[in-house]
Write a structure and sequence with these properties.
- By secondary structure, the chain is of the alpha/beta class.
- The chain has a single domain, classed as Spore Coat Polysaccharide Biosynthesis Protein SpsA, Chain A (Alpha-Beta Complex), CATH 3.90.550.10.
- Strand 2 and strand 3 form a beta hairpin.
- The longest helix has 13 residues.
- The chain is globular and about 40 Å long.
Length: about 220
Amino acid sequence: MRAMLLAAGRGERLRPLTDRVPKPLLTVRGKPLIVYHLEKLAGVGVQQVVINLSWLGEQIRAALGDGSRWGLRIIYSDEGAEALETGGGIQRALSWLGGEPFLVVNADVFTAFDFAALAIDPQALAHLVLVPNPEHVPHGDFALIDGRVRESGMPRVTYSGIGLFRAELFEGCTAGRFPLRPLLQRAIALDRLRGQLYGGSWSDVGTAERLAALQ
């Protein structure tokens, strides 16, 4: 399996911390956030990882190198001065991600989730890891009903930033900047979006307060 770490964001809510350091390189308990993911990916047998870059991306490239210290091959997808958002960023990297389902992880989440626990239904375009709603997302993103992700219904849950995707999800997309959510909504309409609820340790490190709480 191949994987992609989303690392291009500006980290506006973490300013001024992210004025000089890209969010994935912020340190939690003595280690950059993104390094936790690289270690876990290597541990489950992933060999090739794509990392997208934009804001202060050269710092990420300099810090991680070619990935060989973790037994990985890192490919960098440089999106330039303006990040392509999640959908556009993944679409740009598809040629490196191969023909099989691939793992996508937001580089700014901190979690104990076991990537090896992920599997995707043969009919699904994507399989999302969902979590109980944190305080900053009180109404959730989706509903999860019998393993199927829905736009409405109960219980409401939040997308964790971890998922398995098929390249087919991006069919018809034009290269450029676009969000992921409309593609997930299209998959829901086709009844081809699956998910699982994870109740373990997870945090979206989106603010200085949440970063401090993890230390």
